[in-house]
Specification:
Order of helices and strands: HEEEEEEEEEE
Shape: globular
Mean pLDDT: 84
Number of helices: 1
Structural class: alpha+beta
Distance between the termini: 73 Å
Number of strands: 10
Radius of gyration: 22 Å
Largest sheet: 5 strands, mixed
Length: about 160
């Protein structure tokens, strides 16, 4: 009798595993969704996540945290490596509030800033750039403590929307 029940049980187990894998895959897709892949990322910019203005600079703190690096805009309640927005012609000052720390911000192949170079600074050297090109940009930030050895540096990614 157990031989007759084996194929249906096996089929039921297979279906359950397939459904669980499908559910995890769908969840992973939602978790890894990028704002810049949305049809209209500018619509996600609000007063609560917009930093600075053409008359007031946006300050972004780049630091190494427990296991990575983060870029946190100077917006009340802002969290590291979350979407933030700036308007065209806004000065963005990248700095680190953590002593003896250096950082690099890489905007990828097309930088929206003037000058368009990688942003390299540290706790003793802030770097100011001006937002010039509207659009959605994914960037990486890395931070290291002075004299760092393997494992003492971290990096992270975030997204920035520059609106007209």
């Amino acid at each position: 009798m157990t031989h007759r029940l084996f194929p249906p049980r096996c089929m039921l187990l297979t279906v359950l595993l397939a459904l669980l894998n499908y559910g995890e895959g769908a969840h992973a897709q939602k978790k890894n969704a990028y704002v810049c892949k949305e049809p209209d990322p500018e619509s996600l910019c609000t007063a609560a996540n917009t930093c600075g203005s053409p008359s007031q600079p946006c300050l972004v703190d780049v630091k190494r945290n427990a296991n990575a690096a983060s870029a946190t805009p100077g917006i009340p309640g802002a969290k590291g490596n979350k979407l933030f927005c700036v308007k065209v012609d806004t000065s963005v000052t990248w700095h680190s509030d953590t002593k003896h720390q250096g950082f690099v911000v890489d905007m990828g192949p097309t930088s929206p800033f003037d000058p368009p170079d990688d942003i390299v600074g540290g706790s003793d050297k802030s770097v100011t750039v001006r937002a010039k090109a509207p659009g959605c940009y994914r960037f990486s930030a890395g931070a290291c403590l002075s004299g760092a050895i393997y494992g003492m540096c971290g990096n992270g990614t975030s997204e920035l929307v520059i609106v007209k």
